[in-house]
Amino acid sequence: MKSRLVSLSLIFCGILLAGGPSLAGESVFPNLEKPPPSTIGPLITDTAVPIGQGNFSIQPFCFLNITGGRFSPNWRRVSSQGDFYSLQVPVYFTYGPSPNVDLVLVVPYLHNWARDARLPSSREAGSADFGGLGDTTLYVKYQFQEETASRPTCTALAGFGFPTGHHRNLNPSKLRTDLLGTGAYTFTAGLNLSKWYSPVYLYANLWYTLPIIATVDGVPIHDRDLVTLNLAAEWVLTQQWALLLEFYHNWQAGNLLGPKSQQPAQALLGLSVGLEYNMNNHWSFAGGLAVDLAGKNTVYNYSPILTCKYNF
């Protein structure tokens, strides 16, 4: 499974880096060399082109995660022992202090629900819910290569995660719905790519996240390092409308720093489809559905997604 995913990733990134003819017929835009002036971009995959010096945008997302079950250690689907739902509303604040630099602050609100849930520590099934602030992240993005006819936009990324989500003094009666954060500071290094092949915009992310040892509800936990790979295609239909197709994948590796994690390795991959409407240079809207297809040691979800973006 992993070898196939790596092969797919290399092929996709090779297309981005190689340059070449248009992926599909004649563009709906008069200038075939440049992408449309304003699109909202993918739902999950991060973009590479800077917002521009002095520009500012706000983009809230709404993810409703409906848990269908769990992936076992051998990639099989098993029961989640209850009905679980999660509303995630991360808000992205993006500012361009210079032509090639973006600062992005992500502040999420989370709300979890559990219905007829049975945990290993509980004798009977119960219901609970809890909401509040999740872990906050600050990203710094630097574009070191601008797109040309043969080369993609290349942007380096550094992210700093702060454990602002609730992770202490958990209430057993809340059935873990009050766990809103990892409890760990994290550092992420990554690369974002994008390339315009009229009328399709291709995107790729490859990130590596290192967590430090955290204390969750009084128990020291050192999570494994996380590798994230996202691939997306944005098919621009008209000046306003575009279709989205995304492949997302993350898996946990060993630890580069600190002691070896005792947590079981997790992996998750899925697909997302969506539709976007770019009203003008200020307002854009998008919606879609993400489906977790395979994984291990984690839950799988069906997630409707809505977002809007306002550029100042």
Commentary on this structure:
By secondary structure, the chain is mainly beta. Helices cover 5% and strands 55% of the residues. The strands form two sheets. Strands 1-3-4-6-7-8-9-12-13-14-15-16 form a twelve-stranded antiparallel β-barrel. The longest helix is centred in the first third of the chain and has 17 residues.
SSE map:
Blueprint: H1 2-18, E1 56-71, E2 77-78, E3 83-98, E4 101-117, E5 126-133, E6 136-145, E7 153-162, E8 186-197, E9 200-211, E10 214-216, E11 219-221, E12 226-236, E13 241-252, E14 267-278, E15 283-296, E16 298-311
Antiparallel strand pairs: 1-2, 1-3, 1-16, 3-4, 4-5, 4-6, 6-7, 7-8, 8-9, 9-12, 10-11, 12-13, 13-14, 14-15, 15-16
The overall pLDDT average reads: 88
SSE ordering:
HEEEEEEEEEEEEEEEE
Low-confidence stretches: 1-12, 15-30
Task: Please state the overall shape, judged from the principal axes of the Cα atoms.
Answer: globular
Task: Estimate percent helicity.
Answer: under 10%
As a percent range, the share of strand residues is over 45%
Strand order of the largest sheet: 1-3-4-6-7-8-9-12-13-14-15-16
Strand pairing plus helix content: what structural class?
Answer: mainly beta
Largest sheet: 12 strands, antiparallel, barrel
Number of helices: 1
Please provide the count of β strands: 16
Terminal residue distance: 44 Å
Any idea what the radius of gyration is? Answer: 20 Å
